[in-house]
Design a protein that fits this description.
The protein is of the alpha/beta class. The protein has four domains: about 20-150, NusB-like (N-utilizing Substance Protein B Homolog, Chain A, Orthogonal Bundle), CATH 1.10.940; about 155-200, no CATH class; about 205-260, Alpha-Beta Plaits (2-Layer Sandwich), CATH 3.30.70; about 265-475, Vaccinia Virus protein VP39 (Rossmann fold), CATH 3.40.50.150. Helices cover about 45% and strands about 15% of the residues. It is built from 20 helices and twelve strands. It has helices at about 20-35, 40-50, 55-70, 75-85, 95-110, 115-130, 130-145, 150-155, 165-170, 175-185, 190-200, 215-225, 250-255, 265-275, 295-305, 315-325, 370-375, 380-395, 415-425, 460-465; strands at about 205-210, 230, 240, 260, 285, 310-315, 335, 350-355, 400-410, 435-440, 455, 470-475. Strands 5, 6, 7, 8, 9, 10, 11 and 12 form an eight-stranded mixed sheet that branches. Strands 2-3-1-4 form a four-stranded antiparallel sheet. Strand 5 (about 285), helix 15 (about 295-305) and strand 6 (about 310-315) form a beta-alpha-beta unit. Helix 5 (about 95-110) packs parallel to helix 7 (about 130-145).
Length: about 475
């Protein structure tokens, strides 16, 4: 009797190392393990891989898309992966979940063919997780690949009628509490909040600022090339870079005569500089100056008028960034490390004051998508006393007739109008300074959809900027 036949033994095949996906995985692990921000972690990883000859420009673009796309859609992908595994998501090892999320994004959020997305992610799993867990990754990805994104959303998202905020949260990958807060701040019907959440998930343009007296938009456009540059939408100092534009290659950026700055931030600084003023206009203060973008623009604008800018920042490292941003400014300025809640300057010393206060950063979720998963509603309570005290100190710092700009990169009502209203309601007590609103809207020329005023809230879906808020106040007594 003959022996039963056996399948020929397959020799072990070592997994192929894909530097693009390994780099993306390393960036996601740093975001998860160290609470790092992708915009800080990814550039040095890309630079190291380029220097080693492991990736080129196209590879860098793919790695960037994999990292940011996965982070932006994390909530959606978590809901889909949870439907494909036989255990609670919290019991899946975080590195395994990162690999699954990278695979889900390739399958559902890019044009990478299904077979390529699955095979490349399984190879990544073999390299970074081992062959055993790679089999689990393979099985889950094949379940995910059985449907497209719309089909999955129909399955895992609650219906609009059942729970509109949770529906929006799953479909647009935002925590429910942020959906609710943004909708409260925006107001209006379903279409508006959906447009806003969609804009949060789009890759923002790279926008440059030509610092007055030091460079011009025309110089930047010529350096980039007209085919790769677009004029700013609203700011007369702005130039937008097209796909693949690298600001670090421009002489004006390397020399500090220009910088990378969202158009919303440019508009806030320009509005404060343009606000009508009674009396002298020689001393300006940026009281929360780090990392220095608004301070650099203010310093350039102040120099054109012969005014002096004092830029103050509490954190020494960030004060160093401010000093670097202002280096070479033609007019007088000073950078100090100081706590603006216990300021070293005398009350009433300044004609113009800007305080862009610490906040939850919900207005910059396009740029820091991981922040939406780190922030908690209780963070608002932590920022509230600081924001109010900073605004009080700003009003003490400005002279009678001078102007204060209170700014946040958050549209949350608890960080914007509520702070200003509370502080103004306390004016008139013994020893307190009185102030009144100025209508900020005329200081944003050409910008539409600015609401009823007198303060201004910018929006990604309406203005193409971060969701910057500005209230302008004049000290009256």
């Amino acid at each position: 009797m003959s022996a039963p036949s056996r399948r020929p033994h397959r020799p072990y095949r070592r997994p192929k190392k894909d530097p693009v996906r390994i780099l993306a995985f390393e960036a996601l692990r740093a975001v998860d393990e160290r609470d790092a921000y992708a915009n800080l972690v990814l550039p040095p990883l890309l630079r190291k891989a380029r220097d080693a000859g492991e990736i080129d420009g196209r590879d860098a673009a793919l790695a960037t898309e994999l990292v940011y796309g996965t982070l932006r859609r994390q909530g959606t992908y978590d809901a889909i992966i949870a439907d494909c595994v036989d255990r609670p998501l919290r019991e899946v090892d975080p590195p395994v979940l990162d690999v699954l999320s990278l695979g889900a994004h390739q399958l559902l959020g890019t044009r990478i063919p299904t077979h390529a997305a699955v095979s490349a992610t399984v190879e990544l799993a073999r390299v970074v997780l081992g062959d055993g867990r790679a089999k689990f990754v393979n099985a889950v990805l094949r379940r995910i690949a059985a449907d497209d994104l719309d089909g999955w959303l129909d399955r895992v998202a609650p219906s609009w009628d059942e729970d509109p905020e949770e529906h929006l949260g799953v479909v647009h990958s935002h925590p429910r509490w942020i959906v609710s807060a943004l909708w409260d701040a925006l107001g209006g019907p379903r279409a508006g909040i959906e447009d806003l959440l969609e804009a949060d998930n789009e890759r923002p343009e790279v926008t440059l600022v030509a610092r007055p007296g030091r460079s011009t938009p025309e110089e930047l456009t010529a350096a980039v090339g007209e085919e790769g540059a677009l004029p700013g939408r609203w700011s007369r100092y702005a130039v937008r870079l097209g796909e693949g534009g690298d600001p670090g290659r421009l002489d004006a950026v390397r020399e500090g005569r220009a910088g990378v700055q969202d158009e919303g931030s440019q508009l806030v600084a320009a509005a404060l500089a343009s606000a009508p003023l009674e009396g002298p206009d020689t001393r300006w203060l940026d009281g929360c100056a780090g990392p220095g973008g608004k301070a650099a623009l203010l310093a350039a604008l102040a120099a054109e008028r012969g005014a002096h800018l004092l830029a103050s920042e509490k954190q020494p490292h960030r004060a160093g960034l401010v000093a670097r941003s202002l280096a070479g400014n033609p007019g007088p300025y000073e950078v100090i490390t100081a706590d603006a809640t216990r300021p070293p300057w005398r009350p009433g010393s300044f004609d113009r004051v800007l305080f862009d206060v610490p906040c939850t950063g919900l207005g910059a979720l396009r740029r820091r998508p991981e922040a939406r998963w780190r922030r908690r509603p209780e963070d608002l309570a932590g920022f509230a006393p600081l924001q109010r005290e900073l605004l009080r100190q700003a009003l003490r710092a400005v002279r009678v007739g001078g102007v204060v700009g209170y700014a946040t990169c958050s549209p949350h009502l608890a960080e914007t109008r509520a702070v200003v209203d509370d502080v103004l309601a306390g004016r008139g007590a013994a020893g307190e300074e009185k102030a009144e609103f100025l209508d900020a809207r005329p200081l944003f020329p050409g910008v539409p959809a600015l609401g009823d005023g007198p303060d201004v809230q910018l929006w990604p879906h309406l203005h193409g900027t971060d969701a910057m808020y500005l209230a302008l106040l004049r000290r009256t007594a």
